[in-house]
UniProtKB/TrEMBL annotation:
This protein's name: Histidine kinase
Domain Histidine kinase/HSP90-like ATPase, first and last residues per copy: 312-397
Molecular function GO labels: kinase activity
Keyword Transmembrane recorded: yes
Native source species: Mycetocola manganoxydans
Length: 398
């Protein structure tokens, strides 16, 4: 994927990051050159005291201009920084009549190579900028040669130092610019892979949620019909079938789990569609289907919406399992709330089962009860054995 195919927002974001890196590098190079020059000039005997103070003031002005140039990019700041750099070089040369010692030579080299040479890092984006870069470099070399008519043998090494500084800044800036398309392609590729993986995860989570909903409602009714509705009044069967029909119609019209953000799903009135949304509706539903339930404890469940929905649906599935598989017609449900955790205990004296052989990958108890409660932050404990009844403890923290 070429950079030209990226969105304008992506290109702008990458361009901003690249520009910030280039200007930070320019500031680092420039301030390093200014600092080295200040240290060299401050050495004893480098310059007469009066000239040292003036040169240090110019170095301070150059450093301030370098910071301003990289915080608020403008050609005027670059021209000002270049002018101050040349003025500083002249202020070092003139008092010593072009005869540089080791300290002043190092100071001039630091200013010419890095103090003003650092600007080459940001002058590599276009042919016009490259022409400005070449003009700045040649002007710096020419200015040094003009000032050093009485120079000693330090001039060749000084020219090499200045050329190296400008070359390093130029090559570093060019390398960053040329790496820009490759970085954009790599980051965009990672972003696309992340989006594909996220959508796949969201689709899988939505599929599980849909399967749970259908398993706990429509499939339960179909299973009951397959067994000729034994033990369930005909009126209750018709009411349940009508409820399932309404659910399927609303799902067909688009009321399906849709990811509003990664990992979060909502379904319009899921609890209402499946259970009527209240414990009273839950009691009435199973009472009409021939399962006598003794309710104990609190009649209210103080949980937020998502946790309440998961708790009620898991409780309903436990009772549905009692009705369909236990072989008994009565169960006990105890609800409690200690202020931190809401508990629901479903107990029957039926045929029981071996919890260790419940397949994790199948719907039913493992998915509609255990996985549902766990996904909402709760836990499920099961105590059962063949011919010894079953007790299921649902715990949901507030």
């Amino acid at each position: 994927m070429s950079p030209s195919r990226l969105s304008a927002e992506e290109r702008d974001r990458f361009s901003w990051q690249l520009a910030r890196l280039l200007y930070r590098t320019t500031r680092l190079f420039g301030l390093t050159g200014s600092l080295v020059a200040a240290v060299c000039i401050s050495l004893p005997g480098a310059l007469p005291p009066a000239n040292t103070v003036g040169c240090l003031a110019l170095i301070g002005a150059l450093a301030a201009t370098q910071v301003a140039m990289t915080h608020r990019p403008s050609p005027l700041w670059m021209v000002l920084a270049f002018s101050i750099g040349l003025t500083l070089i002249a202020a070092i040369y003139i008092p010593v009549n072009g005869v540089l010692n080791m300290a002043t030579g190092a100071a001039v080299g630091a200013i010419a190579a890095w103090g003003i040479g650092s600007m080459a890092t940001i002058l590599v984006s276009s042919w016009g900028q490259l022409l400005c870069l070449m003009a700045g470099f040649l002007s710096t070399i020419g200015f040094l040669l003009a000032l050093s008519q009485n120079a000693t043998g330090r001039m060749p090494s000084l020219i090499i130092l200045v050329t190296s500084g400008w070359a390093i800044s130029t090559l570093f800036g060019y390398w960053l610019r040329s790496s820009f398309p490759r970085v954009m392609r790599r980051v965009s590729s990672i972003g696309r892979a992340h989006n594909i993986e996220r959508r796949a995860s969201e689709t899988e989570a939505q599929r599980h949620r849909d399967a749970r909903l259908l398993h706990d409602t429509v499939l339960a009714t179909l299973t009951l019909l397959a067994h000729s509705g034994v033990g369930v009044p005909a009126e209750s069967m018709r009411a349940q079938a009508e409820s399932d029909r309404a659910l399927l119609k609303r799902l067909r019209l688009g009321e399906t789990p849709q990811p509003r953000s990664s990992g979060e799903y909502t379904l319009t009135n899921t609890a209402e569609l499946a259970l009527g949304g209240t414990l009273e509706a839950l009691k009435g539903r199973f009472g009409s289907m021939g399962l006598d339930i003794d309710w104990h404890g609190s009649g209210q469940i103080g949980l937020p919406g998502r946790k309440l929905e998961a708790f009620i649906l898991a409780l309903s599935e436990c009772l549905e399992n009692v009705r369909r598989h236990s072989g008994v017609s009565d169960a006990h449900v105890t609800l409690s709330d200690d202020g931190e955790i809401v508990r629901g205990v479903v107990t029957d004296a039926g045929s029981g089962f071996d919890p260790t052989i419940v397949a994790d990958g199948k719907l039913g108890f493992a998915d509609s009860v255990v996985a549902r409660v766990r996904d909402a932050g709760g836990s499920v404990r099961v105590f059962s054995a063949p011919d010894a009844g079953t007790t299921v403890v649902l715990e949901m923290p507030k």
